[in-house]
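Bug report (template v2)

What were you trying to do?
Predict the complex of my protein with 2-phosphoglycolic acid.

What happened?
Run completed; filing so the output is reviewed.

Input:
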Amino acid sequence: MRKPIIGGNWKMNRGTPEECRNMLKKLIPLVKGINAVDIVIATPFTALTSAYEMLKNTYIKLGAQNMYFEEKGAFTGEISPNFLKTIGVEYVILGHSERRNIFNESDGLTNKKLKKALYMDLNPIVCIGEHLEEREAGDTQQIIKFQMNETFKDLTREQILKVVIAYEPIWAIGTGKTATPEQAEEVHIFIREFLSQKYDKETANLIRIQYGGSIKPTNAKDLFKKENIDGGLVGGASLDANSFFQIIKAAFKSD
Ligand code: PGA
């Protein structure tokens, strides 16, 4: 059985220590004792230390939203995976569509970051997903396959087992348009088949694949009910403690 994982991607919000603390003060008591679902909060870099202090005695794991693939040196404005490790970060989101589309990050760059994150023992959450025009042209599977070939290039079985994949159709991110559970499940099955061919069936069945894109308390349950959807990566709705808590509760497969 794969343990569901719910990530809160705060993006460029709640980035001051005070905003972060206020948010976590509300969330921590709500999710107290929940261990059947992995919960990750990815704050802006400026709030990581404050978040760490508040999360260290809870089950909630701390995540960053990006990193560079070098540990130190002349890389103005970049963040070292080593810095992240040192301040208690356990997860890192890589290849988010906003990194790809706004900051022109390629699959190749994401692959380098991914290998470095694994080397540093950070747990990567790697995002893939198609644009609306690609879906409408019937190219979704081709795009997903290409992204996975490039992003997961040269990863061993041991390495891929540590990766959480987030399928995030770009047309559903921050738009209020969610993929239907059937649309999402279809791509999740495709991703698992790809992994099964590249590695083996057992490996593919162990890897967690999250859905992301306008997840809300009202649609979370139907998405998470699908066999191949192992939780979600949540943007907007993770900024409200109560909404995020409802989404976490929706990830309990047994209900
Ligand atoms: P959203 O963002 O939930 O606001 O659509 C999801 C994401 O970008 O990870």
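What did the reviewer find?
Residues 181-198 form the longest helix (18 residues). The chain is about 45% helix and 15% strand.
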